[in-house]
Design a protein that fits this description.
Four copies of one chain form a homotetramer.
Chain A lengths: L1 E6 L4 H11 L4 E6 L9 H4 L16 H7 L2 E4 L5 H5 L2 H6 L1 E4 L9 H8 L7 H5 L1 E2 L2 H9 L3 E3 L3 H15 L9 E6 L14 H4 L4 E2 L7 H13 L6 E6 L6 E8 L7 H12 L5 E3 L17 E8 L4 E8 L3 H15 L16
Parallel strand pairs in A: 1-2, 1-3, 3-4, 4-6, 5-6, 7-9, 11-12
Antiparallel strand pairs in A: 7-10, 8-9, 10-13, 12-13
Helix pairs in contact in A: 1-13, 8-13, 9-11
Chain lengths: 347, 347, 347, 347
């Protein structure tokens, strides 16, 4: 049994980790860390866990935790994991960080976008970007994994094969993304009250959202050169789900939709969690809700010479906790879909 | 492996059966029956099943099906199961009927409330009412199981111990129930369009909803005498969930809340799926969503001498498909929570 | 032009007052009071008011305000209006209080349920309970009006004629009420976040909600004697709307539905804002949204001898700001529906 | 009083026309036309109108109607208005068509995108495209007005000044639009059921939505040359609202945000219904709900040389019925905001 500790288990992503790990056949949660609810019963914070979790929330002492765990998930605000990680911790156990601390390889870019001084820049180089379908082999050997952001997971996987194969011009890439409200976290803010979110849609972080450099860096690796793109997130009145609608010009307008499909299949045809939709079918977030699947579809627009790429995930699963478990499975040599092979919940 | 056939697999309850059975370790679906989608791929009807279900929808020939299956679930409109069931079918396999055809023991009551001539009244006596926590032993031996209605499951389980123990006066029982919209089914009706349901709540079937006699019959058995009660369902703008708020006078105002709790514990303390909430905690549908749990709470109102009972379930799980699987587990001698032991999905 | 000041203009009820008064032909808002947003532009707090309101939020000095206004609305937390009201204020202008401070005639009941020491009990006697359809004549002469609560407005108006005429036994009255989330206010609380409210329904304040004594007092006047009833509110995932489903035994089971209807018509047939629905029609909150209407329907249940009464209002309009404007109209001798004669918004 | 007839009064746009016209001081509805509900009371189809509209639905005989009306609104499926319009009708009264029949000047484009043979191509030339802020003077003199589509109104107004002034390269224009579900109409379709729409977002009509040529034609006039653009609509789980997020490259990256703002102000500074948001503020559909306002914001992205334009409207008001009333006001010489000068409804 893999002994698991969770720092930040009382946020939405942390709670989703708990939900997924409770039915994972090879893992057992031994530490429910929380900053706000120390000494309270976990099931009093999330009553869906009543009679399923008897544990009491504990603090967030990573070093103490490292002695009890084989793997630690940190689902915490930016900056915390960078502060807590150490050689001692990494020697004793694996760390899978759901925050952004180790996602960007360029510490200056990190500090510019996050406006935080990075507390352990030395580990940036070692950390592996945990986008399983792209970096699988590196993940298997990693001690420290930077679990990707929710928008980035969806945005990158939707475009990756076409960028990698030179089918689209990466400098024309525009990503218009839409997210359910759980992505905003469980903090008590007026802007996230039911009556403020319900019956409305809004853009936010226009031209300055922090997931932008993360997408650019990863797709830059695929393109083999740096790239700059437009990324606009929107808040949608639903609990879960991310849809990314991406626009790019074909590098050659004669590229056929069969060739586009072939590029996707080259990279994804054996991927359990990526579902390339049939011609004419577009992704909808409802069809992936509660699951680790990524649904991807595309339309070639003959009129404009553009291709419209569309991807959908559950932001809390493939966009956070599910991918973290997938990373754990890789690190511990388990079949990648262990504990994650279930159907999306509908309706 | 239990071979499973589903008649009506393309309704919401049928689809939930598919979702649950896909991860059931002892069951395998061999027949996806559908009236409307014969010869279409199941995953084209419910795209959440893409890459998980390759089957094509087949017709609803119960006799043919009986040769291929160990158990048949009928998630069909009222009257269909009664028409299709036969000695030949029941000799070959078990039938778990999610419609109302075999729930009421009095065929006249059935015909009066459903306005349908019952096609096989002879089987009514044999059929076992599949409320697992109450009729467990009979279910284990049954060939034909009448899976309870969603409102009824919630309403009965919430009140049962207090009626059985004579703590409340059954003739004062008033049940005000609220349901998510999946309970209305997947038929294309103006009344169930998004814009008609969203941002509104309404009562319906006031004083004449068909689940009324079902609740009365079952609670009448508990009371040891016939009873008449008020039942009012309401439509709530959410996908899933039923909340029953029930009001009844105590038979003796001196009965304490500890005595009320003791009555619940007498019947439910070892039940896996029933979660009796702590004092002061009330059920909310979000805490059971996606699961087979029943959350129950109560408040004794000293001012009025009444007790307010509250129960919450997921209408598609404990109120339909989950309870049907629980019944299947009982019939086939499996641990009752096989394939159902997972946490509710939140948010 | 009536000069209007609003204390608490940045809460949801305060904002609704602003919306309604902007198109009121005889009123002009001269003071936008706010505790949290002083010196900020009102339209920065509520962007729907951009280009419609240029004012900046001011403080909540009732005495200063009294010099500039003909009427002051206080849409503030419990206790504040009682602290601020004075002879000087009431001499200079009318006060319409949307809080609970002057709703209950018995100061001990107020202090017991609200757990606040009442700061100006001397004015309780003078204050008129502003339920326009019941207390119209007293309201016209009042200086200080206690605008009723949202649940209470709906609950009382739905039952009033039947209690008054002795058609129902008031001691059997059970009110199961459901409210949209704007009733919970704009405070930043985890419990009111989108993801916490959406896709769920829950009861709260069971057997101890503060609107209970208010309903009991007013219906007690109608009954001619004190009464005790059960009242259970529920939170519904929608912005606006209250539905009250009320259960009571007929004092005589032979009372016909025509007699019940006649009782309603006796009191309401000339009321502009009360719409008694046709036989067989039940109220739904969507049909009153954004308006000051009260939709009322009922069903006599022959089986149980009970009558089920149902009423629907918009909690922010008839349940708060709309009724406050209606009260203002009465006080200033205007036609009662001035500024309020528009259709509900659907969908 | 302007006598108004409405063909298609029982659709969502038709009902919104009724709502708006009921409080219009210069208009009176004399004909509630409907295909599906002839001889039924209008208030039985839309119960919000109970006690406000006593009329019974009548048929859709445009010629008969022309004798009783000064203006006819046709809120009907594509093709119907083109079939019914005639010289006799236009001689007697104005026609404001909410369908697409007269929006496109090129009949071949119409027939290609709508797959309908146009029944009265001769009137296409005469028809004026009723985008009030752009074509105000032509509208005043028109007999036949083509009321713009909901997506098109929002998309065009958001981009118009920048295209007209040559600030953006029109061939780089990409419009990612999001709509509430009322835009899908009141037809009973599975895809529009509550449980299918709720908790999901999806794109549709990708690269082939019928509003595309309409946007292209109108922005082409502004650009002074034909243009081709990408337009992708999405369905959002909310009743009302359209948000258009538009991306375009600046024709010169040195263009400043002040120059962009100046372009907007040049065209819109005196427009009552267009609200150009302050720097840093983005539109949200909730702030225009129920109103005829268009909220517009923009962000210059220094990194990509693009400008992101954002516009929000209520699809049923400025996107349909409200703009139709605005057109009526222009035609009859009334102040343009007559009957439309009210605040958006929030929450």
């Amino acid at each position: 049994m893999i002994r698991v500790g969770i720092i930040g288990s009382t946020g939405y992503a942390g709670q989703e980790l708990v939900r997924l790990l409770l039915t994972h056949p090879q893992a057992k949660i031994v530490w429910y860390g929380s900053q706000s609810y120390v000494d309270q019963k976990y099931a009093d914070v999330y009553r869906n866990m009543f009679k399923l979790v008897d544990d009491v929330c504990r603090g967030e002492d990573l070093t103490a935790l490292a002695n009890e765990c084989d793997v630690i998930f940190t689902a915490t605000p930016q900056g915390l994991c960078a502060k807590l990680v150490s050689e001692e911790v990494l020697t004793k156990c694996k760390v899978i960080d759901l925050s952004a601390d180790f996602r960007l390889k360029d510490v200056e870019v990190y500090e510019a976008w996050y406006k935080i001084k990075h507390a352990s820049p030395d580990y940036i180089k070692e950390a592996v970007y945990g986008l399983c379908e792209i970096n699988r082999e590196e993940i298997k050997k990693a001690r420290l994994i930077a679990n990707p952001g929710c928008y980035t997971t969806c945005s990158i996987l939707t475009a990756y094969p076409l960028v990698k194969e030179g089918i689209i011009d990466p400098d024309t890439l525009i990503i218009d993304a839409k997210s359910g409200t759980s992505g905003a976290g469980r903090g008590a803010k007026v802007a996230n009250l039911f009556c403020e979110v319900n019956e409305s849609i809004k853009p936010y972080g226009v031209a300055n959202h922090r997931h932008t450099p993360e997408i650019e860096e990863q797709l830059g690796y695929a393109a083999g050169k740096p790239l700059t793109l437009s990324f606009t997130p929107h808040l949608v009145p639903m609990n879960r789900g991310i849809l990314a609608t991406e626009y790019a010009s074909l590098t050659d307008p004669k590229i056929t939709k069969e060739e586009i499909r072939a590029a996707y299949e080259k990279y994804y045809k054996d991927e359990y969690f990526i579902r390339l939709l049939a011609d004419g079918v577009v992704p909808e977030t409802r069809w992936v809700e509660g699951s680790n699947f990524v649904d991807i579809g595309f339309v070639k627009d003959e009129r404009t010479g553009r291709v419209i790429l569309m991807g959908a995930i559950d932001n809390l699963v493939k966009g956070a906790a599910g991918q973290a478990v997938q990373n754990m499975n890789l690190v511990f040599g388990l079949p990648e879909n262990t504990g994650l092979a279930f159907a999306p919940v509908f309706p």
